[in-house]
Specification:
Blueprint (H helix, E strand, L loop, with lengths): L10 H9 L11 H15 L3 H7 E2 L19 E2 L5 H14 L2 H19 L13 E5 L8 E7 L2 E7 L5 E2 L3 E5 L16 H13 L2 H7 E3 L22 E2 L5 H15 L4 H14 L5 E6 L7 E6 L3 E7 L1 H4 L2 E7 L6 H10 L5
Parallel strand pairs: 1-3, 8-10
Antiparallel strand pairs: 2-3, 3-4, 4-5, 5-6, 5-7, 7-13, 9-10, 10-11, 11-12, 12-13
Helix pairs in contact: 1-8, 2-4, 6-8
Length: 347
């Protein structure tokens, strides 16, 4: 979403304007899908046969759904196994799916492994080379294919169908520590806006609005959906857009923007269209926990088609998890369903 700059309209109208698709752009451009196909093919072509066997799966392989955000053993090809040229191809692949802001966030999250090592973490676990690339199917063409980049606190899952529409969920970004409090990177906050914008929104609510939005003084231990393969809407949905003032709507727009703006521009544009079509007035905001910085807190933004979850509860409220999920679109489910329904049946 473009950030509002001097737009003199009321809040709900602001949301409509900021989420609107520009005239003549009803369908999302295929730019990122084409770039992904080129980048993924370029990555595969510089691998050795053994590396290719580790990184390349069929699109039907169930490994495509085996996602998580904790340190663990993973299938795929790790950064530590790559040459300089292969690392450059991996960076190109990441850049094809992420905006500049998203790429910077992802890179910084990976660098936090060195911070954890500096703070006494096990170097065999706290390693920025333990991020893995996996390609599913054959990049390009009309057959569905996808790719994943994943490691501790980062899981990016992309699906391309019919060479154009792209799904980019689940999309997980985390940060431990949320704020580096000592050492060479002291003061670093990779997900600062995700925290600060949400707190600003909830603190702007009137007591009556907070009674609706703040559902508990205690927080869940983690994001409620975890690494579930498929998620359903959570309840309660909190305070809706229709119950917010114009300024509060603008704040919610900015918060949603932090999540949308992680991805390539055309992917974010397509997602705005989905949100608008599904009913903006049904988007809700939920908060749990303390309103004070440095204390455990949790929030979510939920619409008819999507869910954003965020928590900062672990390690003395200095450990963030955040994720975007699509109720029907995770791993491209809705796009795949349409693809196979429209595919000609064999006689």
């Amino acid at each position: 979403m473009d950030r509002p700059q001097g737009i003199a309209v009321t809040g709900f109208a602001t949301l409509l304007l900021l989420l609107a698709i520009p005239e003549g752009q009803g369908a999302p451009p295929t730019g990122s899908a084409e770039e992904m196909a080129h980048a993924a093919s370029g990555f595969l072509e510089v691998l050795t046969p053994d590396q290719r066997a580790a990184a390349h799966f069929s699109f039907q392989d169930q490994e495509r759904f085996n996602w998580h955000f904790i340190p663990r053993e993973r299938r795929g090809l790790s950064l530590g196994e790559l040459t300089d040229e292969q690392r450059e191809r991996t960076s190109t692949l990441l850049e094809s799916g992420l905006s500049q802001e998203g790429y910077l966030k992802a890179s910084t999250i990976m660098e936090l492994e060195l911070v954890l090592r500096e703070l006494g973490g096990n170097p065999d676990v706290r390693d920025p080379d333990l991020y893995y690339v996996s390609i599913f199917g054959e990049p390009g063409g009309s057959a569905p294919w996808g790719w994943r980049f994943e490691g501790h606190h980062l899981s990016l899952n992309f699906t391309v169908v019919d060479g154009a529409p792209v799904a980019w969920a689940p999309a997980f970004f985390g940060a431990n520590p949320a704020q580096v409090r000592e050492g060479s990177r002291e003061g670093l906050r990779p997900l600062a806006a995700e925290e600060d914008l949400a707190r600003s929104l909830v603190r702007s609510l009137s007591p009556e609005q907070q009674d609706v939005a703040v559902v508990d003084t205690e927080t869940p231990r983690d994001i409620i959906t975890g690494n579930a393969l498929q998620v359903d809407p959570l309840s309660p949905a909190g305070i809706s857009v229709a119950e917010l003032s114009s300024q509060q709507v603008d704040q919610l727009v900015l918060l949603l923007d932090e999540y949308l703006s992680r991805m390539a521009d055309d992917l974010a544009r397509e997602r705005r269209e989905r949100i608008q079509a599904s009913g903006l007035s049904e988007v809700g905001f939920v908060w749990a926990g303390s309103l004070q910085p440095g204390e455990p807190h949790y929030y979510r933004i939920q619409g008819p088609t999507f869910l954003v979850e965020y928590d900062n509860t672990q390690n003395e409220a200095n450990h963030i998890h955040s994720v975007w999920r699509d109720f029907d679109g995770d791993f491209g489910r809705d796009l795949l369903r349409e693809h196979y329904e429209e595919a000609p049946h064999p006689h």
